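The protein record quoted in full:
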Amino acid sequence: MVKALSVARAGGPLEAVRIPRREPGPADIVVDVAYAGVCHSDVHLARNDWGYSTYPMVLGHEVTGVVSAVGAEVTAHAVGDRVAAGMLLASCGTCPSCRAGREQYCTGGGGAPADAGGFSERIVIGQDFALSLPAGLDLAAAAPLMCAGVTMFSALREWGAGPGVRVAIAGLGGLGHLGVRLAAAMGARVSVLSRSPAREQDARRFGATGFHLLADAPANEFDLIISTVSAVTDLAPMLALLDVDGTLVMAGAPVTPLSVPVGPLITGRRRLAGTSIGSLREAREMLDFCAAHTITAEVEIIEADQMGTAFARLDAADTRYRLVLDTATL
């Protein structure tokens, strides 16, 4: 049995519990969790905002830790290795998405069980779903890379961020601050779109060369906007900021339906897209990229007894910039 934090019902509190972990198979590893990032997706899942949560649920999908046991057929990791794991803890391996190396879009029902998350002392996962953590990355500051980091990295790569490309990141929270750091390291011209002027100093510290309040941002200015904002319903203001052939990518996940005017899409051949976490290949590339460019999340390490207020702090945008649970305090 291992200590964990669990949600028993939709909207219920995080509660300290003891849960069993499955016996590791020959291709599995056991990871003693060191740190687990607290993501806004955890809030949505705890409340069943998206309609598919099952309970009891152990959340936490930004995990770093140390391998404590390996199965007989494991070749990728050894006891004592530092590893990282994200939301992608399993996939079917046979559906078209998995065969194409897009495991994050698996349609074969190969997902992990609801109690498999990292708000716990220990997890058991297949060796392919744990990634070696480069030596230069701190365990705590690297944990958020496994959701926030790879989500932004995947979107920036997919839509061609690089030298000369005008990229705007909407929202400067857990996702957004990593998006700015990554886009700047890729050589893009990075701006931040915010509702608060108080974020400007941090935006520029993270690598942005432009900062605009959303209501005052210049029209037709950007090639790519990645929105990390959950509290948005009307996309018209952001669509107006795109140049011809520009793309607005939704990385944040509003609960309420969005209002999308067709006019800006037609008149500027603009595109509206969504993105999820990255594939295993992208996650490996992201970790190597972050190690090469000294990129990690800016984190506040919290103890288990502070998790009761963590979700409310995320709702209030009262974090700078990612809360990370020290699982030694469970």
Notes: The chain has a mean pLDDT of 95. The CA atoms of residues 165 and 188 lie 5 Å apart. Residues 2-144+298-329 form a domain with the Quinone Oxidoreductase; Chain A, domain 1 fold (CATH 3.90.180.10).
